Amino acid sequence: MTRVVATGIGAVTPLGIGVDAFWSGLTGGRSGIRTIQHFDASNLDVQIAGEVPDFVARDFIDFKAARRMDRFAQFGVAAARQALEDAGLEITDDNRERIGIVVNTGGGGIGTIENEVINMAKNGPRRVSPFLIPLFAPNMASCQIAINFNIHGPTVTSVAACAAGVQAFVDAVHMIQRGDVDVVIAGGTEAGITPVAIAGLATMGALSTRNHDPEGASRPFDKGRDGFVFSEGSAIVILESEEHAMRRGANVLCEVAGGSYTSDAFHITAPDPSGRGQSAAIRGALKHAALAPEEVDYVAAHATATPLGDIGETNTLKRVFGDHAPKLAISANKSMLGHLLGAAGAVSGLACILAIRDSLVPPTINLTDPDPACDLDYTPNVARQMNVDVAIANGFGFGGQNASAVFRKI
After folding, report:
1. What's the pLDDT at 206?
2. Mean pLDDT in the chain?
3. Which is catalytic among the residues 143, 288, 302, 352?
4. 3-state secondary structure of 79
5. Which residue pairs, CB below 8 angstroms and at least 24 apart, start in 209-214?
6. Residues 362-389: pLDDT tens digits?
7. Is 244 a catalytic residue?
8. Quick check: 129 and 63 in contact, CB under 8 A?
9. Smallest Cα–Cα separation from 306: which of 369, 225, 370?
């Protein structure tokens, strides 16, 4: 079977712009959660989020082109540019039809929709932007990457809720292994922090209400957790067949060895308490990678800091890994980043790649009073230097969508 490798990475996250800001913040245990700055949230029950600081679209995108993109697409193009530069991949007439794009999202251009609804209510239908549809359409991050870099291969978007980012890696691996393409630009992007989105998630009880303590609000596996923190950003990885990467002399970061996704078919928001679907996704990913459970060293957990979700994932890991589960190093990057929804799994994949590269597992911060029902090794509060040969990224989403991807040291 064709081996698929990662050769370039890019990131736009609440910890800053670029992979270095992301990784130094994550391994340093620094929170990117703050009081909302992009709009007045004083009348909302939840007033905190993981906003991307100091993002200037024109640093990455032509000014005119940027005006025709929603923020989620701008993030995706910016992270893709970083990843392509990191990979040293030149796009030419000889290869542009052999490069695919799989950049997924949870909500697409939610901000554009909300703004234009308000605009129409105030000013009437004739004042609605003619770019409304191509701004908010969820496929536009992938399409804008294709347009900006003149890429003619397959361009794909799956709107798979919080499993979307991991699912991008799974689909990318399959595309390369089928021989459809030699390279895939894969990942996720999200920019849905708006008053209506915050209000909707708050009224359903999904969000933390620790407005007084933003940096301590996201508390995966802690007894005091009270919901997730809504965040934005993007993570992109360049994936290639090993043969293609070797032929062009690329710097290989790791192998993306396999992946799988499943459905709970249980509830629109709650995870199946049996863990059947989540377990099947992890087992399927390991089978695709031809690895045994005891070969896994690190898990970048989905770990949203919801009461049911963290217990469910803990039980899933015990079910899949058995006696090996207590030996896993597990971490919840959402404790620092918050929940990037459609980009969350892509960020977890990035954490796996960098953990393998640097033999360094990021911590789970704010874990000061562990929930007795969450009794595995979550790398509490301080990063851990250790060898990581095999890592797994999990992404579990609303509607019962589950995805897992396996990363292996070359």
Report:
1. 97
2. 97
3. 302
4. helix
5. 209/45, 209/46, 210/48, 211/35, 211/46, 211/47, 211/48, 214/31, 214/33, 214/34, 214/35, 214/48
6. 999 999 999 999 999 999 999 999 999 9
7. no
8. no
9. 225
Q: Is 302 considered catalytic here?
A: yes
d(Cα 102, Cα 104) in Å, to the nearest integer?
6
Q: What phi, psi does 385 have (nearest 5°)?
A: -80, 120
Q: What domains are defined for the chain?
A: 4-247 (3.40.47.10), 258-408 (3.40.47.10)
Please give the biggest Cα pair distance in the chain.
64
Q: Is 241 exposed, middle or buried (0-12, 13-18, 19+ CB in 10 A)?
A: buried
- 103 pairs with which residues across the strands? 187
Share of the chain above pLDDT 90, in %: 98
Span 75-110, pLDDT tens digits: 999 999 999 999 999 999 999 999 999 999 999 999
Per DSSP, 69 falls in state S
CA angle 244, 249, 251 (to 5 degrees): 95
pLDDT tens for each residue of 139-151: 999 999 999 999 9
pTM over 0.90: yes
212 class by beta-carbon count within 10 Å (0-12 exposed, 13-18 middle, 19+ buried) = exposed
Exactly one of 162, 254, 352, 374 is catalytic; which is it?
162
Catalytic residue among 143, 244, 288, 339: 339
